[in-house]
Amino acid sequence: MRTSQTVLGAALIIAFGAGSIAQAEEFVLAHGANPGNPRYDAAALFADLVAQCGDGEMSVNVAASATMGDDAEMLLSAQSGVIQMTANSQGAMSQIVPEVGMLGLPFLFDSLPAAWRMLDGEVGDLIDARAQDAGMKVVGFWDNGIRHVTHTDKHLPDPAALQGMKIRTPPSEVTLAMFEALGANPAPLAWSELPSALQSGAFEGQENPLTNIYSAKLHEITPYITLTGHKYEATPVIAGLGWWNGLDDASRTCIEEAVAQAGWYQRGRSHMDNQSLRAQMESEGAKFLDVDQSAFAEATASVYDQYAEEYGELIDLLRN
Q: Is residue 11 over pLDDT 90?
């Protein structure tokens, strides 16, 4: 794995090699998605929108496919001002801003639009305030879907089937707690390392929305897809707070509007993929199983109790 120092050095070359960005003529938006993923296309659209609303005075250098490191490294780079923005992950951000991890409590949202309404309101404002305390600005929330479990050689019809399963998760305490409650053996791993870890047998399976599974071709490695729908994840679009506060009002407005407009494109893609990808993946050999989600919800209900004392007010806001 590349070290944080290596990543920071590479980012410095990109960010400063063509001259100072103090006036924000060019800035970096980094993310970990590959071509074909809605996040990849939304980042390209964001760059086009910024060029338009900035009247050509701003341009975006999109660093895709984890070229700036994994999500945790990109957040560190944004905090420290080495890169300016990142379309990141809920799991990595929850290590710095624990409140964002509460979005991934089990079976919290029954649809993507329900999650979006919450993120675009009071909950999103609360998370942004906590992020600013940590040196980051949440410019908006893109989508990372409702997630399902895949396995190399079997379906998982009930919670008992997950007993002892070696499953990769994002670096999210809530997700780890959820699969521990199900009796699995979860462990976090960087997204970019997941395909090789599955192929080597280090993990029996993983969990992701259909969009991510398909764009990374994980259904070719873990073709048994159980539609657990166990949690939701967002894609927080983060700016380094020091850089953000140094922008003029017109530049901030341009970037905020571009994030929102590209976000609605990305959310729409995510929603449509969630509806249509099953047939495509089945034609390519994937095997799907619908399950009784209430059994999984009952088995993971204790996860709420683990966080109720510290984050009870936020959990009540999310649930009600």
A: no
Whether residue 225 is predicted with pLDDT greater than 80 in this model: the reply is yes
Mean pLDDT value of segment 74-101: 97
Residue 210 carries which DSSP code? H
Radius of gyration of the chain (CA): 19
One-letter amino acid identity for 242?
Answer: G
Given a contact cutoff of 8 angstroms between Cβ atoms, the answer to whether 96 and 309 are in contact is no
The whole-angstrom distance between residue 185's C-alpha and the CA centroid of its chain comes to 22
* Exposure letters 142-159 (e unless 16+ CB within 10 A, then b): bbbbbbbbbbeeebbeeb
Strand partners for 235:
142
Nearest Cα neighbor of 210 from 154, 147, 292, 157 is: 147
pLDDT in tens, 226-253: 999 999 999 999 999 999 999 999 999 9
* DSSP letter (8 states) at residue 183: T
How many Å apart are CA 96 and CA 134, to the nearest integer?
7
Would the pTM count as exceeding 0.85? yes
Q: Which long-range contacts (CB under 8 A, 24 or more apart) does 90-95 make?
A: 90/144, 90/170, 90/172, 90/233, 90/234, 90/235, 90/236, 91/169, 91/170, 91/171, 91/172, 91/175, 91/188, 91/233, 92/170, 92/171, 93/131, 93/236, 93/238, 94/171, 94/172, 94/173, 94/174, 95/171
Asked if 68 and 250 touch (Cβ cutoff 8 Å), the reply is no
| Cα 123 versus chain centre, distance | 17
